[in-house]
């Protein structure tokens, strides 16, 4: 899979066009600011009374209501939380220009039918593979973040060129933009969130910390060993790859990894990972996401409260004090 670079991308599909960013959260703010710095005419669409309006104005970004922003734009980028995108689309759809482009940074709303776009619209995906804060900081450093792109609906015959020009304008062409599909991007992202970086890794850290403390190790030392070193391994893997990381650490650390890792991540773990991927593809995760939003997020609220009370969090605070 070859990455498409900035020099190979035609920026003219965005020339003279107005882009509406719907939402001003983690991705919305970063993409709006990067577009603005790239000379693109940007407006942010927000609900009346949104607390983010003042933040956008402080950043020098124009705002409008959701319907006004969408109705006055050639490209509309939906960057609000996935679970509310269906309701937002139904609200703005009557205002969308004939032949406008509709963009996403996550494939969920299309992959799982939250939105069925009007047939005259170009529908594309540009998904930076990292948080908006990093997307913004990399842009300001003259660097970029790798992104995936895809086209779901090509009404104009120019949807791919629009998607690539958009990715270039937010700085992703500097690092490389990879061709994908809405389904591939969505399923891989949800799997990672459930089963790997955001789901499994924090649970491993907590379990390791609890095991050491139960074995008589002080909370501060347990925290530094099980949580504090995570950044080090992440930086080594980013710089050298997994094989290079193994070669860079001590023999004791490498032997410990060789002996201990497969005992933790065994065939049972891999089977449960496959089950999670199957559940995602069957739509069970997105069904739960809809239920969470409809019920004011009871599972998420309880999980956040529980996390704040963990012993590992108290150990972290002791080290900071």
TrEMBL record:
Coiled coil: none annotated. The keyword 4Fe-4S does not apply. One of its GO terms (molecular function) is ketol-acid reductoisomerase activity. Residues 1-180 form the KARI N-terminal Rossmann domain. SUPFAM superfamilies: 6-phosphogluconate dehydrogenase C-terminal domain-like, NAD(P)-binding Rossmann-fold domains. Gene3D superfamilies: 6.10.240.10, NAD(P)-binding Rossmann-like Domain (3.40.50.720). It catalyses: (2R)-2,3-dihydroxy-3-methylbutanoate + NADP(+) = (2S)-2-acetolactate + NADPH + H(+). Belongs to the ketol-acid reductoisomerase family. This is Ketol-acid reductoisomerase. The lineage of its organism: Bacteria, Pseudomonadati, Pseudomonadota, Alphaproteobacteria, Sphingomonadales.
């Amino acid at each position: 899979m070859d990455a498409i670079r900035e020099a190979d991308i035609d920026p003219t599909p965005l020339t003279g066009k107005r882009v509406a960013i719907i939402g001003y959260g983690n991705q919305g703010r970063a993409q709006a600011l990067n577009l603005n710095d790239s000379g693109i005419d940007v407006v942010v669409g927000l609900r009346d009374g949104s607390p983010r309006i003042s933040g956008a104005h402080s950043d020098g970004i124009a705002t409008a209501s959701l319907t006004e922003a969408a109705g006055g734009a050639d490209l509309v980028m939906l960057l609000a939380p996935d679970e509310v995108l269906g309701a937002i689309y139904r609200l703005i759809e009557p205002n969308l220009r004939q032949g406008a482009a509709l963009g996403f940074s996550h494939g969920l709303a299309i992959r799982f039918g939250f939105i069925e776009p009007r047939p005259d619209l170009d529908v594309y995906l540009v998904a930076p593979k990292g948080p908006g804060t990093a997307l913004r900081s990399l842009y300001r450093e003259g660097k970029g973040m790798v992104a995936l792109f895809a086209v779901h609906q090509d009404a104009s015959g120019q949807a791919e060129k629009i998607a690539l020009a958009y990715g270039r304008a937010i700085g992703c062409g500097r690092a490389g933009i990879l061709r994908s599909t809405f389904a591939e991007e969505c399923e891989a992202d949800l799997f990672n969130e459930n089963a790997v970086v955001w789901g499994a890794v924090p649970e491993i850290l907590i379990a390791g910390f609890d095991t050491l403390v139960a074995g008589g190790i002080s909370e501060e030392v347990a925290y530094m060993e099980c949580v504090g070193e995570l950044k080090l391994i992440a930086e080594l893997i980013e710089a050298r790859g997994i094989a290079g990381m193994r070669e860079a650490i001590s023999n004791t650390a490498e032997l410990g990894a060789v002996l201990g890792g497969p005992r933790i991540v065994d065939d049972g773990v891999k089977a449960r990972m496959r089950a999670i991927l199957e559940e995602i593809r069957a739509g069970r995760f997105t069904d739960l996401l809809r239920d969470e939003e409809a019920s004011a997020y009871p599972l998420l609220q309880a999980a956040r409260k529980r996390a704040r009370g963990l012993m590992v969090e108290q150990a972290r605070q002791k080290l900071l004090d």
